[in-house]
Structure formats: C-alpha cells, structure tokens
C-alpha cells in the first residue's frame, strides 16, 4: 500500500494556500464592469502574444486536481474587439491600459523570450502565467521592466536558467511565485538584491528553485512583513537562522526537502502566528522542543523525516487548531502523549516509522474529525482504542507492524476505505462489520493471530476492494466453492495463503489482477482455463507454491515477473515462459525432460530455481551468459549430466550457483572466476574430477564452497595469492579423494574464520534476492534440521578423504568456527591443544582417524560444544571432566580402548597403567554409517521461503535434545524488526 491519499491531502493543503492567492487575484481583476475601449497598442501586443503560442491541453493538466479551471483563454481573443473584455485581461478604468493578465492554466505552449510582445505591456500590475509550458525558456531580464507589478506568478510553467537580477527592480512586488519550474537557479547576488529591494514582499514561493549557492543566514534580510515563504526542494545548505521562526507576521513556512539544511527550533519564548510549518526531510535532529506547543495558531505541522529523537512533547496537545500533524519517520520513543487526544480539529495524524511503545491513547472522545491515521512501524502494544470504531469521518486506518493485542471490534461507521493492521498480535475473529464497509479498497490483516472461518462470499459486498491480504493467520475458508470473488472488478491484489482453500476462487470478474498468492492451500489439479484470461496483461506476481497442482500447460500472462510454483506435483516438460520473467521458481515438482536454450531468451531473470525435479539431459551452454541480471541459478537434485557450461561471461552477476546432486562431470570451468560476486558455490554430489580448484581463491566474496562427494583428488597444495578465499566461512570437501596433509597454508589464511564478526544483535541471513534465502541442513543422530545461513555461520568439513599427517596447530586460529569435521581420514598424532581456542565450536567430529595421546584438557574451554565425536581413534588417558564434558555420552568416545573416566565404564586409577591400545580402527568405511549418528552430515541449500509463516528452523522429525543449546541458544535468531518491516514493504511493493 502506498501513501497516495496522504500525498494528495498534503498537496491539497499547499494548493489551498495557492488557491487562496488566486482568488485574491481574480477578485481584483474582475472589478471592471464599465470599461472603455482598450488601448490599441495593448490590444495588438496581446494578439501578438496569443499568436506566439500553440494550444496544447496536456500542459495545463495539473490544474484540474488543483481545482482551477483549465481552458484556452486566448482562443476567444478576437482582433477588433475590446481587449478589456477578453478573458484573463484587466484594464485600468480610466486609461484603458492593460494592468492585469491572468493566463494561468491556458494551455499555452511555446517559448517566451525577450522578443515577446508581453513586454510591450509596461503597465501590468498583476501577471499570472502559471501552469503553461514555455519550453525551458530563460526567464527574460525584461521582466524587470514591469516595475508596477505587485503580483507575479510564473510557477509550473517550465522556465529554466538563472533567475535574472533584474527581477529585483520589481520593488512593488507583494507576491512572487517562481515555483516548480525546470529548476531555475537563484544566485547569491540576485537574491540579496531581491531581498534589499522587494521591501513590500509578503509572499515568496520558490519551490524547486535551485538556491544551493545561497547562505541561509541571508534570509534574515527578509522583510518583516513576510507572511508566506516556501523554499521547499530548493537545496538550501547549512544552518537555517533560528530567529527566522520569530518573524512577527510569518504564517506559512515550508522548508520541505532541503536535506542539507540544518534546522534548530527555538527552545524558549517562541511565539509566532505560524499556521503552516513544514520541515519534512530537513536535518533537524535532537529533541523536538516543548516550545512548539506555544504556536497556538498552527493548523498544519509537518516534521517527518527530520531525525528527531526522544519523546514527543505533550505540549503538542495545546495546538487546538491543528488539522494536520505529521511526526513520522523520526526516532521518537516513549509513548504517544495522551494530550494529543485534545486535538479536536485533527484530520490527519501520521506518526509512522518511529520507536514508540506503550499503548495508543484511549480517551473516548478523541479525534472526532480524524480522516487519516497512520501509526504503523512502531512498537505500540495494548488493544486498539475504542475511538477507532466510532469516528464517523475516519477513512484510513494504518497501524501495521506493531505489537497490538486483543480483538478487532465492530466498526460503527461505514466510511472506511482502508484498514491496514497487518503484522500485529491481534486475535479473535474478523469482525462482521468489516464486510459491510462498502467503500473499502484495501484490507490488510496479515500476520496476526486471527482465527475462525471467513466466508469469502461475504466479500461480495466489498465492490471497491482492490487489495485483500489475510495471509499468515489461523483463518480458513469454508470448504465450499468460492464464487463471490468473481464480481470484484477492481481487485488487484489477493493474498490468501494458508487458507485451507480447496480450489481456485473464481476471479473471472477481476480482469486487472496484479498479484495472486494462494500458496500453501489444498488446490489440486490444473490451473483452470478461465484463469488464463485473468490478468493476461496485468498479472505480475503469481504464487501457487505448496499446493497439489499437477499440470502446467502454459504461462499465458505476458507481463508476469514472479512465478512461484514450488512444492507442487507438476509433471511433464517445462512450458515456455514469458520474457519479462524475473523470478522463476518451480523447485520440488516432478518436471521431466530437458531445459531448452529457450530459457536463455529470458534476459531479465534474476532467480532460476528448478531444483528437486527430474529434469535431465545437458544444460544449454548459454546458461552461463544469457543474463547479466541473473543472481541465482539453482539446478540442485535433478538428473542433469554432461559438462558444466564453460561460458560464464565477463561481468557475470551470479551470487549463487547450485548444481548439487546431479551427474555433472569433468573439471570445474575456470570461467567461473568471471562471476566476481559469487557468494555460494555448491557443486556437491556430482562426478566432477580433477584437483582442488585453487583458482577459486581469488573470488572476493565467496562465502560457501561445497564440493563434497565428487571425484576430486590429490594434494590441495598451497595458495597462489596472499589473501586466498578472503570471505570463506563454509567449506565442505568431504567424501572425495583428497590426500596428503591437511591444507595448513590455506587454513592459516582463512580471514573470515579468524575474526568474530557480527554480534548476535546484528545477525543477518544470507539472501541473494527477495524471498530467496539460504539455509543449512544438519543431520545429527539421524535428526535433520534446517537453519537459515546467517552471516555468522561457519564450518569446515574435510571428512571422508585420505588426509594423513597431523592436525596442524594453526587450526586453533579459526576462532569463529562453529563446526569442524575431520572424521574418516588417516590423521595421526595428538589432538592439538590449540583447538581449545575454538571457543565458538558447537560440533567437533574427529572420529575414525588414528589420533593418539590424551584428549587435551584445553578442550574444556569449548563451552558451546554440543556434539563431540572422538570415537574410533587410539586416544588414551582420562576424559576431561566438567563443563560440557559432563554432557557427552559413551558413544562420543567408543572405540578408544585407552580412554577412561566418565562416561566410560572404565575408571581411571592412578596406580593402574593404561594398557596401550592395540586395536587400530580400519577407517575405510566411507559412508557406511554403522555408528548411527556419528557423522554429522551437513547440507546446504538456497530457495524460496514461504514468507514469514515458515519457521527459521524446520525439523524433519522432532526437536532434538541438544536443539535448545545449538539452535535456539545461538544460531536461531528471529528476524529483526527492520528486516521484517523491509520484507513486508517489499511484499507490498510486489
Ligand atoms: C532596486 O530598485 C530600484 C528602483 O526600482 C532600482 O533602480 C535598482 O536598480 C534596484 N536594485 C537592484 C539591485 O536591482
Ligand atoms: C462511499 O463513497 C461514496 C463516494 O465517495 C460516498 O458518496 C458514500 O457516502 C460512501 N459510503 C459510505 C457508507 O460512507
């Protein structure tokens, strides 16, 4: 949902000021009733002026929305008639000279330069040319000839260039408006001349005039009779003079959008007749002073996006004239002051995007005239206040992203058009009265705890509905044919995931549908044929994931950008896709056949996820270079074979490539190094051969490298560069034929594993694209869990290879490591005591090697260790006692005949000499997992997530005992509010 109505409201307010100006003007200009013939010269000049322009309706298009009539006034000007009677022309009663020209909104289109006959009308006192199009004409210095002018309006008419210095000759000017042209510039000299000479000026509107070269302090030379000043969007920089706020006659001050303007409000003795104050988007910062409550005449106060922090002053409740109050997008904290409920005139109240907590003030008779309320994106709790249901004028309620609890009660009035309460903790049923709000256009109740059954037929009455989002509640529909929705002609957005819907709701009347989410329902079979005509041109987003769709004959929606069909039963070949597709995800279906090179025509694609299907054949060579925008290519778990394409192009933008679980063969293509942005590279479970691709070490942001279960072999060797794999956090080379010693030189240089980065509060999850997230799945003791890959997740798995020699001491430097698996190799020697430095380690598997000696006491420091497997080595001596070591069971140590002490049955006795172990474990049992859980299997993946409802951790079976320690305690972090908010916003943007 955008903020359109609000923008309009605000505009309308500004415009009402301008309109007020205009009425002033017209009351003066229409005072001539008995007019003599107009001066012949002036008549000729006017006709020439008329002829210099063509008539072009669109140039005055905006007038209508401002409530000003727009029509070609000059069309009725006829030579030989009395020009004083012409529309827009005012003459002097006595002399017949033209003294006023009002041609605003007259469809004039053409250049207006120094040769214009306009300048042959030297007696002009009022001139209004606003809302025409002068094709970027320079504002002529000849405007300086109109020395009698008291009113000049050249706004919205496409002038450009410098404002000429001659403008300051107009010393009688009372009102000057140069707003909203093609950013003409006002330089320091012209401005100071203007301030010096225009001593009578009361209204100055310079919206969008480039004033970047003007020092704000010079504004202090402004005449004290000034009543209105608008400098919005004029790029003023530096400190705005505080004393300006005390000007005795100032009623309107608009400094909106000067982001480099530093504004400090007076903190004491501030009184002023200000009625309109707008500082939106300026740099104000600090606290909003209490003194703001002294401005008893204020009607409109706009302080959004000003960097204010601290509490909202309760003195605001004194501003009894206020109709418009905006404090949004700041850092206000604390409560909403209950005094605000005194603002009986208030029509618009915006405090969204702050850090307010506490409950919404409950005063029963609050805000009797409120139309628009937005308190979204705060931390407000408690129940919805009673007044919300009883204000007859209320049309917009926006309080999403808060912590509100309790029920939604029945609304007493039917004027509401907009209700947005998503992402709170509201419960109970959807009140019946909502379905009586005949003018409702937008209804968002998503992500609450609402329950009960929604009869979608009740929607029938909401004929104006455009946006309906009831997702992520415990709502469900009556399991009947949903036919009502077919009469909602304006419907654009429909989100009903997890709604227990058994078939497609009939949407045949909603021909302009833009987004449809029916994911996680029980829809079986085909997409009905009539759906092909819905949104044929308009549908951008379709999410039918987690259903039971079986066929996908065609994708008829020409402009579709996001297509999510994950987790269905779709079989058959891939259909042809429309070329605008950005996001394509059909993972976890039963697709067969080959991927044709047609896919390479889809040059807008950012995400392709075809994983977990039965696709086969070779993949087209062009897959490596068809789209610069491609971020994610996921072909995991299909039956593809052949060589990996070698054509990854220069400036390839891939961040995530996953070919895991196919039968790709041959070596890895070196052209992958063209993809400088790769973060995740997963080629595990294929038939890739060759040696370790150490050329990957130059990829600057590679974080996850998975090559497990291939035919890679040989000595890993040494790095060729001084900072190899600078960002690598997850390395899995398990189940290959790598041999010789462990790659100590690489281990020594893994920068990302050597420093603790990211405090738990700042955890972020890897996310290559919107809604596309990476996760890691662990299989421990036959329990499988999936965890989203957070940016602090780290692990190294070199198990099931032929490494020999000793575990290098340097391993102790990888202090941010959380998982280490070196099991099933031929490693000998002692466990290095330096491993006691790996204080973040949560699982450690050194089983099935030939390690000797004692378990170093230093391992006691590993207080986060939840899983330890040292079984089947030749370790001896006492098992360390205390801390984590009290939690490990027998199976962590079995097959080490020399170990003694808890939990082994064999006690350690000082007298008793440990018999040296004679039994050597024959560690050649690759993947013959005879020891139950002992191999910690780690899998990685990335894919579409099912929005907020899907947990961050997914168990295939029940919660393992160590879960609390490993996941809830450390890795498992809820998304932060801002991430959630950003997500909601993204989802809304579609
Ligand atoms: C100020 O106005 C006077 C009289 O209109 C004029 O002569 C003079 O040039 C103006 N000064 C500037 C700086 O334009
Ligand atoms: C619905 O909107 C129309 C048009 O704006 C208005 O005339 C009518 O009064 C509104 N209905 C209700 C119940 O507010």
From TrEMBL:
The keyword Transmembrane helix applies. GO terms for cellular component: plasma membrane. PANTHER family: LEUCINE-RICH REPEAT RECEPTOR PROTEIN KINASE EMS1-LIKE-RELATED, LEUCINE-RICH REPEAT-CONTAINING N-TERMINAL PLANT-TYPE DOMAIN-CONTAINING PROTEIN. InterPro entries: Leu-rich_rpt (IPR001611), Leu-rich_rpt_typical-subtyp (IPR003591), LRR_dom_sf (IPR032675), LRR_N_plant-typ (IPR013210), LRR_R13L4/SHOC2-like (IPR055414), RLP23-like (IPR046956). Keywords: Cell membrane, Glycoprotein, Leucine-rich repeat, Membrane, Receptor, Repeat, Signal, Transmembrane, Transmembrane helix. This is Receptor-like protein 12. Belongs to the RLP family. It is a single-pass type I membrane protein. The keyword Nucleotidyltransferase does not apply. Gene3D superfamilies: Ribonuclease Inhibitor. The gene is LOC110419689. The lineage of its organism: Eukaryota, Viridiplantae, Streptophyta, Embryophyta, Tracheophyta. The chain crosses the membrane at residues 931-955. Residues 229-400 form the Disease resistance R13L4/SHOC-2-like LRR domain. Residues 1-22 form the signal peptide. Residues 41-92 form the Leucine-rich repeat-containing N-terminal plant-type domain.
